[in-house]
From TrEMBL:
It comes from the Bacteria. It comes from Anaerotignum lactatifermentans DSM 14214. Coiled coil: none annotated. Pfam families: YpsA. PANTHER family: UPF0398 PROTEIN SPR0331 (PTHR38440:SF1), UPF0398 PROTEIN YPSA (PTHR38440). The lineage of its organism: Bacteria, Bacillati, Bacillota, Clostridia, Lachnospirales. This is DUF1273 family protein. InterPro entries: YspA.
Length: 154
């Protein structure tokens, strides 16, 4: 049986006061996905939500050592903030040797094409996350949205 794969998508810029709530929701949704049989998780290697998702997933490896983190970079680079997490990841994938216009969208399409589900945090209907969620819906992926119950407080 093919390993069930789930990818992450979310915004690069996160409101600092939302981060603890996002992390709490990520923990719950990741645990739910693991219980549903997901074992491979793809993360896009950007700051913000991607970084938080990778860090949160790695915390689950203590309880679920069988889960795997693959970080998918759009081109061959490794931002300094990712070095520690990259060292703990099961694999790193570089989709291109160099940057080119559209490489981030190509990365997002790759992650969707490799996945059965998507965990996402979407605040606006424009940009890379909105594009990725539309691709996921068009590909009939299982959708695991993160919604913060106290959004009206922000």
């Amino acid at each position: 049986m093919k390993t069930k794969t789930c990818c992450f998508s979310g915004h690069r810029e996160l409101y600092p006061k939302k981060i603890p709530l996002l992390e709490k929701e990520l923990h719950k949704i990741i645990a739910d996905c693991i219980e549903k049989g997901y074992r491979r998780f793809l993360c896009g290697g950007a700051k913000g939500f991607d970084f938080l998702a990778a860090k949160t997933l790695l915390a689950h490896q203590n309880t679920y050592p069988e889960i795997q983190l693959e970080i998918v970079f759009p081109y061959h680079y490794l931002p300094s903030m990712w070095k520690e997490i990259a060292a703990k990841a099961n694999s790193l994938t570089y989709l291109s040797e160099t940057y080119y216009p559209g490489c981030f969208y190509a990365r997002n399409r790759y992650m969707v094409s490799q996945s059965h589900g998507i965990i996402y945090y979407l605040e606006k209907e424009t940009g890379g996350t909105a594009y990725t969620v539309r691709c996921a819906k068009n590909s009939s992926l299982a959708l695991f949205p993160i919604t913060l119950s106290s959004e009206s407080e922000w």
